[in-house]
């Protein structure tokens, strides 16, 4: 349960970071972008306008994808920094027991603490040399034992602490509860966040992918041979086209778990861009309530009736006098036409130019 709690806490902190960092960075980049691309004095797109929303969407997608790539790269970087027993001894993954022991004897002759102290004297701090030699000895003991080698390749260096294990079955029963901590913690976290209304988009595919990854991990852990996808596809690709060292099964599973969880959080950030829009009449959450539409319609009808009543009151003095009514309508029509023409920008501009020419051509002393 301690492993489950640790995984849940790590995933929770990862989700918290993903919650505010992309939005924060998007705001900064958009402000910098407008400061560079828009000249001084020109109007910048205002929040809520279509152009502003379009720019923010593109920047946000770029930031989320970049943060996703960085998170996966960071996980792989720290995993490579930690190294493994094969890299420590400098032997290939298919090295046999004879090669492993021969390599250890050569390294031990160079890095034995007694030899270090004899070369550099007693003033030399041999603490680091002692730790390095112990690591070499542990790597040699682990890889020389077929059972421990099987357990190390699938569960990582933690198996060194499992002193009570001596068979493949023992290591398997000791390692499965530890490996299941990620899935238990992640499922609990996903259920809690889904209940609270978060990460709902793509929920079906999220659970399906987690289940598929869980089945793949069980398959890798319960086989005494390295899975073909690792030996025939992944490792040959990385060793041929990059300088990345080959993956061990536990390293591949660690990176896959980290990548899957991070990918789901990234997709939840982008869900608003990919989720189909909901119909206003079909959605009760955030859509327009039909009762509100009815109330608005009733208010509009009431306003029309009140306006008609006020207009009839204003026309009451002219009731029965058709000539006066016609004259009133004509004057009203004339006033509307004249007012509309005068307020037109082009008409006002033409009138202004005409008045300007008249003032220029007027004789001296004439009043404009």
TrEMBL record:
<feature type="transmembrane region" description="Helical">
    <location>
        <begin position="12"/>
        <end position="36"/>
    </location>
</feature>
<keyword id="KW-0472">Membrane</keyword>
<feature type="domain" description="J">
    <location>
        <begin position="84"/>
        <end position="156"/>
    </location>
</feature>
<dbReference type="GO" id="GO:0051787">
    <property type="term" value="F:misfolded protein binding"/>
</dbReference>
<keyword id="KW-0812">Transmembrane</keyword>
<feature type="transmembrane region" description="Helical">
    <location>
        <begin position="171"/>
        <end position="198"/>
    </location>
</feature>
<dbReference type="InterPro" id="IPR051948">
    <property type="entry name" value="Hsp70_co-chaperone_J-domain"/>
</dbReference>
<dbReference type="InterPro" id="IPR001623">
    <property type="entry name" value="DnaJ_domain"/>
</dbReference>
<protein>
    <recommendedName>
        <fullName>J domain-containing protein</fullName>
    </recommendedName>
</protein>
<keyword id="KW-1133">Transmembrane helix</keyword>
<keyword id="KW-0143">Chaperone</keyword>
<dbReference type="Pfam" id="PF00226">
    <property type="entry name" value="DnaJ"/>
</dbReference>
<dbReference type="GO" id="GO:0036503">
    <property type="term" value="P:ERAD pathway"/>
</dbReference>
<dbReference type="GO" id="GO:0051087">
    <property type="term" value="F:protein-folding chaperone binding"/>
</dbReference>
<dbReference type="GO" id="GO:0005783">
    <property type="term" value="C:endoplasmic reticulum"/>
</dbReference>
<dbReference type="InterPro" id="IPR036869">
    <property type="entry name" value="J_dom_sf"/>
</dbReference>
């Amino acid at each position: 349960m301690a492993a489950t709690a640790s995984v849940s806490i790590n995933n929770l902190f990862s989700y918290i970071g993903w919650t505010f960092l992309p939005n924060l960075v998007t705001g900064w980049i958009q402000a910098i972008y407008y400061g560079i691309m828009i000249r001084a004095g020109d109007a910048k797109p205002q929040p809520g306008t279509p152009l502003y929303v379009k720019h923010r969407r593109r920047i946000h997608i770029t930031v989320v994808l970049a943060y996703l790539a960085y998170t996966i790269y960071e996980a792989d970087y720290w995993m490579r920094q930690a190294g493994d027993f094969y890299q420590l001894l400098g032997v290939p993954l298919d090295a046999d027991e004879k090669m492993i022991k021969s390599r250890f004897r050569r390294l031990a002759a160079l890095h034995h603490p007694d030899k270090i102290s004899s070369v550099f004297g007693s003033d030399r701090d041999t603490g680091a040399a002692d730790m390095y030699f112990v690591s070499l000895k542990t790597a040699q003991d682990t890889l020389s034992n077929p059972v421990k080698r099987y357990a190390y390749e699938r569960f990582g260096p933690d198996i060194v602490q499992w002193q009570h294990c001596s068979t493949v079955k023992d290591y398997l029963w000791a390692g499965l509860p530890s490996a299941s901590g990620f899935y238990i913690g992640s499922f609990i976290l996903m259920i809690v966040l889904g209940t609270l209304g978060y990460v709902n988009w793509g929920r079906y595919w999220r659970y399906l992918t987690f289940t598929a990854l869980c089945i793949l991990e069980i398959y890798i852990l319960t086989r005494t041979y390295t899975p073909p996808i690792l030996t025939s596809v992944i490792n040959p690709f990385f060793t041929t086209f990059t300088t990345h060292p080959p993956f061990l099964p536990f390293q591949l599973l660690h990176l896959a778990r980290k990548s899957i969880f991070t990918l789901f959080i990234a997709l939840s950030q982008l869900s608003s861009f990919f989720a189909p829009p909901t119909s206003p009449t079909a959605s009760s959450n955030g859509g327009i309530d039909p009762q509100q539409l009815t109330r608005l319609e009733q208010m509009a009808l009431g306003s029309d009736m009140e306006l008609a009543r006020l207009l009839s009151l204003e026309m009451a003095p002219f009731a029965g006098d058709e000539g006066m009514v016609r004259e009133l309508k004509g004057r009203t029509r004339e006033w509307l036409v004249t007012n509309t023409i005068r307020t037109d920008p082009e008409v006002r501009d033409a009138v202004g130019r005409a008045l300007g020419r008249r003032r220029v051509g007027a004789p001296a002393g004439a009043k404009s």
